[in-house]
């Protein structure tokens, strides 16, 4: 590749914004792999010269294999890398629309999460569904909570706070038959509801656990990504929150917000029991000086 044919610089804001917008548009509804996300980010960061790089050169910049670049182009709807490069050279890269402000990748990721939260706020207009969740969680004694792999943090967050007001919260952990043992124990003790968090990439062991819970007569209250389409076969009630894939690993701001919403809805359905328990905990923690402030 002749040196003279390459544009200089790291790309104008218009180039970066246009390429990012096009990649986002083509990736809607898809789950990009970490390698594909690195390729996408590399294309944005090298927007000025991206229309002139070979697939091998792009692979070296992104630190991935050359076939990964080809698969990425095909995942976006192109026949191959050459077609994607021609498109970038003649179409997107030539866009003259200059945005008023330029954002870096981290700002863009934060703004994407803000959009996800706005979408969640609109969906929460269905207060009846939220109340249905709250009633199911409040009345299940014990309450089983499941979150495996990427969803484990959401389950742990819910259980930490729920245990302050709910008399018997059981976080289901482990894998395989151990999960089934724990679900059977909850059901035998009177538990009627399994609250499950299932974020991408949707672990097979989570799907099996949900199927088993319904098989033994438990109701499944599922929180998952907005793109998950098969929830009717797994859950009795379902709330969705969009996950952001802007960075190497997913972020779950909307899902974390849903945890707080569900906790509040559960407390609202405990007929004053939650407030009494919180008051008791508050007095105990002050007496024992648990917190600095």
UniProtKB/TrEMBL annotation:
This is MurR/RpiR family transcriptional regulator. One of its GO terms (molecular function) is DNA-binding transcription factor activity. It comes from the Bacteria. GO terms for biological process: carbohydrate derivative metabolic process. Residues 19-95 form the HTH rpiR-type domain. It comes from Phyllobacterium brassicacearum. Signal peptide: none annotated. Pfam families: HTH_6. InterPro entries: Homeodomain-like_sf, HTH_RpiR, RpiR-like, SIS_dom_sf, WH-like_DNA-bd_sf.
């Amino acid at each position: 590749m002749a040196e003279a044919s390459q544009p200089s610089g790291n790309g104008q804001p218009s180039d970066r914004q246009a390429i990012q917008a096009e990649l986002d548009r083509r990736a809607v509804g898809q789950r990009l792999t970490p390698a594909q996300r690195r390729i996408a980010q590399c294309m944005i960061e090298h927007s000025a010269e991206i229309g002139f790089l070979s697939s091998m050169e792009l692979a070296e910049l992104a630190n991935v294999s050359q076939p990964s670049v080809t698969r990425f182009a095909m995942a976006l709807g192109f026949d191959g890398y050459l077609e994607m490069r021609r498109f970038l050279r003649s179409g997107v890269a030539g866009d003259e629309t200059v945005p008023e402000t330029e954002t870096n990748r981290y700002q863009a990721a934060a703004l994407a999460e803000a959009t996800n939260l706005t979408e969640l706020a609109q969906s929460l207009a269905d207060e009846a569904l939220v109340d249905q969740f709250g009633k199911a969680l409040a009345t299940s004694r014990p309450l089983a909570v499941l979150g495996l792999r990427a969803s484990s943090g959401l389950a742990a967050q819910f259980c930490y706070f729920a245990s302050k007001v709910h008399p018997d919260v059981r976080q289901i952990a482990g894998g395989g038959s151990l999960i089934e043992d724990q679900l059977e124990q909850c059901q035998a003790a009177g538990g009627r509801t399994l609250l499950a968090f299932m974020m991408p990439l949707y672990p097979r062991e989570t799907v099996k656990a949900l199927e088993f819970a319904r098989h033994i007569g438990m109701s499944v209250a599922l929180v998952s990504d907005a793109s998950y389409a098969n929830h009717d076969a797994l859950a009795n009630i379902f709330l969705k929150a969009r996950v952001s894939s802007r960075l190497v690993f997913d972020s779950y701001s909307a899902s974390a917000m849903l945890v707080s919403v569900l906790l509040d809805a559960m407390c609202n359905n405990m007929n004053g029991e939650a407030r009494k328990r919180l008051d008791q905990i508050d007095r105990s923690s002050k007496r024992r000086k648990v917190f600095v402030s």
